[in-house]
């Protein structure tokens, strides 16, 4: 019995050793990095983190004409960095709250860097700096216009939000439900079918409109404004964003 057990352990060890040798493939180590830039303003393209932000889809055509897609997402400022990619020939197609881009063929080997200039669906901009009021509320002014002159991308707005968070990662992926303000078309002075003219719409939002007042002690908050129209890409209705404003509430 002991001899049989010893023989079984030896066979198992040999099997494991052989398996290790067969699976000893090089780890992915090529790098694809870059950034997305707002073509209209020349500034970094502001986006969400995760599935509601910019998705980069990579299709490796080195071995298959119909490969399994490999997706990853950008940072809030539209930059991206992925150093875990296998060397090969890829079709790359980004998707976000911008006029769609065609798939681009790239050879990924070593470090490959790309800068994508994109036209946002909505141009969302702060107008001036936030104003801290005597009652510890904050007033913001924003402007929303269309980013493209193509009528296909000039559709009615469905919603805008002043996102508020206790940390810098603020957007539809991370926000305080107590302080974030949601505006429907009527609250923006629009109808559900309004097409904006070239002047767009200017909104003034004060945090007094939120569900709850800020607590009665000094604290830093982070604000970001986002708006979205009826347009969806890849079954996702994404926001266009401003950058983040940091305000100390005394």
Keywords:
single chain; 250 residues; mainly beta; Immunoglobulin-like; 2 domains; five-stranded antiparallel sheet; four-stranded antiparallel sheet; 1 helix; 16 strands; disordered N terminus; DUF3823 domain-containing protein; signal
Topology:
Blueprint (H helix, E strand, L loop, with lengths): L1 H21 L7 E9 L16 E6 L9 E4 L5 E7 L2 E8 L8 E5 L2 E8 L3 E5 L4 E2 L5 E9 L10 E9 L15 E3 L17 E6 L12 E11 L10 E2 L3 E5 L1
Parallel strand pairs: 1-7
Antiparallel strand pairs: 1-4, 2-3, 2-5, 5-6, 8-10, 9-10, 10-13, 11-12, 11-14, 14-15, 14-16
Terminal residue distance:
79 Å
- Helix % is under 10%
Tell me how many strands there are.
Answer: 16
Text of the CATH class of the largest domain = Mainly Beta
- By DSSP (H or I, 4+ residues per run), the number of helices equals 1
Q: Calculate the mean pLDDT score and round it.
A: 91
Total separate domains: 2
What is the fold-level CATH name, i.e. the topology of the largest domain?
A: Immunoglobulin-like
Order of helices and strands: HEEEEEEEEEEEEEEEE
Largest pleated sheet: 5 strands, antiparallel
Beta-strand portion reads: 35-45%
Stretches where pLDDT is under 50 for at least 5 consecutive residues are 1-8, 10-21
SS-based structural class?
A: mainly beta
Task: State Rg.
Answer: 25 Å
The best one-word shape is globular
Corresponding CATH architecture of the largest domain: Sandwich
Protein name: DUF3823 domain-containing protein
Pfam families: DUF3823 (PF12866)
Keywords: Signal
Organism: Sphingobacterium corticibacterium
């Amino acid at each position: 019995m002991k001899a049989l057990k010893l023989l079984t352990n030896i066979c198992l060890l040999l099997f494991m050793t052989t398996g290790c040798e067969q699976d000893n493939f090089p780890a992915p180590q090529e790098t694809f990095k870059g950034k997305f830039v707002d073509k209209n303003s020349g500034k970094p393209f502001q986006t969400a983190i995760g599935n509601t932000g910019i998705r980069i889809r990579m299709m490796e055509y080195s071995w298959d004409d119909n490969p399994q897609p490999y997706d990853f997402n950008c940072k809030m400022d539209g930059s991206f960095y992925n150093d875990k990619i296998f060397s090969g020939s890829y079709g790359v197609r980004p998707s976000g709250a911008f006029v769609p881009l065609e798939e681009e063929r790239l050879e990924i080997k070593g470090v490959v860097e790309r800068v994508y200039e994109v036209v946002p669906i909505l141009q969302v901009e702060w107008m001036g700096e936030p104003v801290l009021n005597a009652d510890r509320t904050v007033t913001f002014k924003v402007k929303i216009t269309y980013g493209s002159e193509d009528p296909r991308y000039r559709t009615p707005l469905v919603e805008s939000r002043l996102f508020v968070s206790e940390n810098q990662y603020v957007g539809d992926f991370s926000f305080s439900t107590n302080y974030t303000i949601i505006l429907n078309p009527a609250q923006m002075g629009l109808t559900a079918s309004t097409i904006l003219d070239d002047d767009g719409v200017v909104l003034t939002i004060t945090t007094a409109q939120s569900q709850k007042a800020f607590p009665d002690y000094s604290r830093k908050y982070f604000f970001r404004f986002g708006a979205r129209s009826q347009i969806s890409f890849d079954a996702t209705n994404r926001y266009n964003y401003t950058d983040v404003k940091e305000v100390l509430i005394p």
